[in-house]
Design goal:
The protein is mainly α. It has a domain of about 70 residues: Helix Hairpins. The protein is built from 6 helices and no strands. Helix 1 packs across helix 4. The radius of gyration is 16 Å and the shape is globular. The mean pLDDT is about 95. Bound molecules: phosphoribosyl ATP. Pathway: Amino-acid biosynthesis; L-histidine biosynthesis; L-histidine from 5-phospho-alpha-D-ribose 1-diphosphate: step 2/9. Belongs to the PRA-PH family. It holds the Pfam family PRA-PH.
């Protein structure tokens, strides 16, 4: 169990994207533009799908982490806020999302 959230990773990516650290993978990837970032996102999605079909849970866990990282990079370079994506997901539940959370206080 960890308290680390997508919002935490999103903040790290936003900071690394504009950092001047030449060792930063995020900075290098963002510097290559949206097409390269989107290509990486697609590759990671396929790798996650293959791991799922193979029923390899360990591999799927690692690929899912790569996929979420690369999705957040694409959102960042595209100027789409993670908060807006979460709001869209909440809207689809027909509620803000907070009501259900309140009824599951230990999640
Ligand atoms: N979560 C990740 C993360 N997931 C995957 N990756 C990188 O994504 C790359 C994907 O692997 P590939 O083998 O497909 O990439 P590659 O062949 O090296 O690169 P390409 O030339 O194809 O782009 C790897 O190099 C991983 O290091 C990540 N890089 C960074 N993070 C997070 O971002 C933070 C900031 O990282 P830096 O920007 O490197 O400081 C880190 O602390 C992490 O929290």
């Amino acid at each position: 169990m960890t308290n680390f959230t997508l919002a935490d990773l999103d903040r790290i990516i936003a900071a690394r994207a504009v950092s001047d650290d030449e060792k930063s993978y995020t900075r290098k990837l963002v510097g290559k533009g949206v097409a390269k970032c989107a290509q990486k996102l697609g590759e990671e999605a396929v790798e996650a799908a293959i791991a799922a079909v193979r029923e390899d849970r360990e591999e799927l866990t690692a690929e899912a982490a790569d996929l979420l990282y690369h999705l957040l990079v694409v959102l960042n370079v595209s100027g789409v806020n993670l908060q807006d994506v979460m709001a869209e997901l909440a809207r689809r539940t027909g509620q803000t999302g907070l009501e259900e959370k309140a009824s599951r206080p230990h999640d």
